[in-house]
Amino acid sequence: xxxxxxxxxxxxxxxxxxxxxxxxxxxxxxxxxxxxxxxxxxxxxxxxxxxxxxxxxxxxxxxxxxxxxxxxxxxxxxxxxxxxxxxxxxxxxxxxxxxxxxxxxxxxxxxxxx
Amino acid sequence: xxxxxxxxxxxxxxxxxxxxxxxxxxxxxxxxxxxxxxxxxxxxxxxxxxxxxxxxxxxxxxxxxxxxxxxxxxxxxxxxxxxxxxxxxxxxxxxxxxxxxxxxxxxx
Lengths: 114, 108
Known about the structure:
The structure holds 2 protein chains of 2 kinds.
Chain A: E1 4-6, E2 10-13, E3 19-25, E4 31-38, E5 42-49, E6 56-57, E7 64-70, E8 73-78, E9 87-94, E10 104-105, E11 109-113
Parallel strand pairs in A: 2-11
Antiparallel strand pairs in A: 1-3, 3-8, 4-5, 4-9, 5-6, 7-8, 9-10, 9-11
Chain B: E1 4-7, E2 10-14, E3 19-25, E4 31-37, E5 43-49, E6 52-56, E7 59-64, E8 69-74, E9 83-90, E10 96-98, E11 102-107
Parallel strand pairs in B: 2-11
Antiparallel strand pairs in B: 1-3, 3-8, 4-5, 4-9, 6-7, 7-8, 9-10, 9-11
């Protein structure tokens, strides 16, 4: 079974703090994604990565950065957390070689910025 | 207008009822996904289809490519089916385009 894990289920941070959200997948997938999910807006893509050290902006990259130093790990960084970044953050991975486009999701991190 | 639209946004049902959730899309797609998200956040993939119909237990997903429409049906609904159901499309890339989800509550 594909397993995607995220470093925390719940996180509370203060405005201005630097926040790291970690995601690890154990199936050697090339593609990894970070989403945020907000009521009424659904899932929105923040950043994605097709390979180590590669990153592409998604639909809402402002205020975020990412790092992919190893194939299995994709980190989302909030350089200076703000209250409007309070949200559920979901990581996912997929394998292009299967040409299936199916994504496997982690359990999510519910971030509260106060 | 979103590229992937779902209806209804919220749905309540009595145990045993037949449930239908609809999804319409305005882009050319290579695959249509149905996802389930239980309270607590984790998302699992239920179906991925590009034509016809797929069935898994009490769940059935259909797609009509000409009409750009897909439906998710749940037969003999049960309270454990209560979740958010999300429709998503891929258009020849690895990126998913999501609908905003349908919150289903099934009461005993």
